[in-house]
Design a protein that fits this description.
transmembrane, transmembrane helix, single chain, 351 residues, 58% helix, Put_HupE_UreJ, 6 strands, membrane, six-stranded mixed sheet
Length: 351
């Protein structure tokens, strides 16, 4: 519970400054790697907690709301409005399969920090309704970002609704934990820091953090080389899913056209950072020989292959985040796709 408005303002203000100084240099947030395709419904709760606690932008926005509210009841109302917004788009977006540009969402979220900071810089609103509408609108955007990140983890089609709800519960638990830490640290700091301008300086730090993140993300988005093609193949965000359950490592690296691959095991190793290669059963014997040699040879470490009769593309390579589709066998493109993925830190899950 807040001891007083003065303590509340200083508490949240100090926390905002700490988060701004420590986390603002990172331009992206919510960096979770691996796959969730083989996780049970209850296991999505800690995934949601982790997702929230790694999201410095989300935490800064919450801290800014607490800072601006100045009292427990108002802060609770505003946080509830924010929760309603991001829960709505998180659940609806994931169930509907909505995918948005993660960089654009991150830029808007960064600007939400600027929004709260600017409002606080000029003092608390005399009419809170319009500010609440702004919080709700940004909550909707935050939820789209959460949904996109969640889908990037890979979701089994069975039991999807329960897993999304569990993930959302985890997000809210993580959010409550973060708010509790903000209050405790802020109250401790308030005992030794009595600077009268701390409240305004905190809003300035919030504005600076949002602007820096937005500018960095925008520059990266404009200057980054397009990565939508490798050789004769195209790259897109991964949409493929595999059945959940108790999977392990497949008993072989390559499954022949007459053999059914173990989908649960494929989903398991996808979460371990492997690359999966699927092919149509109609490929020529020569193409089959070349593909088998790639998967089972020196270039095929952490690569697993199996036939996929229903796919439209002749060759499809999949990692935890992206998919390479090819209308013809392009071994060079497969090698490049694998090399790019293994150069990504997210291809090496923690633990």
């Amino acid at each position: 519970m807040f001891a007083s408005r003065v303590v509340t303002r200083l508490a949240a203000g100090i926390v905002v400054l700490v988060f701004a100084v420590v986390f603002a240099p990172a331009a992206s947030a919510h960096g979770i790697s691996g796959s969730a395709a083989d996780k049970s419904t209850l296991e999505f709760i800690p995934v949601g907690i982790e997702h929230m606690l790694l999201g410095w932008d989300h935490l800064l926005f919450i801290a800014g709301i607490v800072l601006l509210a100045g009292e427990l009841r108002r802060a609770a109302k505003l946080i509830s409005v924010f929760v309603l917004g991001h829960s709505t788009t998180l659940i609806a977006g994931t169930l509907a399969g909505w995918r948005v540009d993660a960089t654009v969402v991150d830029i808007v979220i960064a600007l939400s920090l600027v929004f709260v900071g600017v409002v606080g810089w000029f003092g608390r609103p005399t009419q809170w309704r319009w500010f609440g509408l702004g919080v709700f609108a940004f909550g909707l955007v935050h939820g789209l970002g959460l949904s996109t990140r969640l889908q990037d983890l890979g979701l089994p089609e069975d039991g999807l609704f329960g897993r999304v709800i569990a993930f959302n519960v985890g997000v809210e638990i993580g959010q409550l934990l973060a708010i509790a830490v903000m209050i405790v640290l802020g109250k401790l700091a308030a005992r030794v820091i009595t600077w009268s301008r701390a409240h305004k300086a905190a809003h300035g730090g919030l504005i600076a953090a949002g602007l820096v993140a937005a500018v960095v993300l925008s520059v990266v988005a404009v200057t980054a080389a397009p990565a939508d093609a490798i050789g004769s193949c195209l790259v897109r965000p991964r949409t493929e899913t595999y059945p959940g359950g108790e999977g392990g490592h497949p008993d072989r690296d390559f499954y022949e056209p007459t053999e059914a691959f173990p989908a649960t095991d494929f989903g398991h190793v996808l979460g371990d950072g492997f690359v999966l290669v699927h092919y149509q059963p109609t490929i020529t014997p020569q193409e089959l020989t070349e593909l088998r040699a790639f998967v089972t040879g020196p270039d095929g470490q952490r690569v697993i292959g199996g036939v996929m009769p229903q796919q439209k593309e002749k060759i499809k390579a999949i990692n935890a985040r992206t998919t390479l589709t090819c209308d013809r066998l392009d071994i060079a493109a497969l090698k490049e796709f694998k090399s790019r993925w293994f150069a990504d830190p997210q291809s090496h899950p923690a633990g």
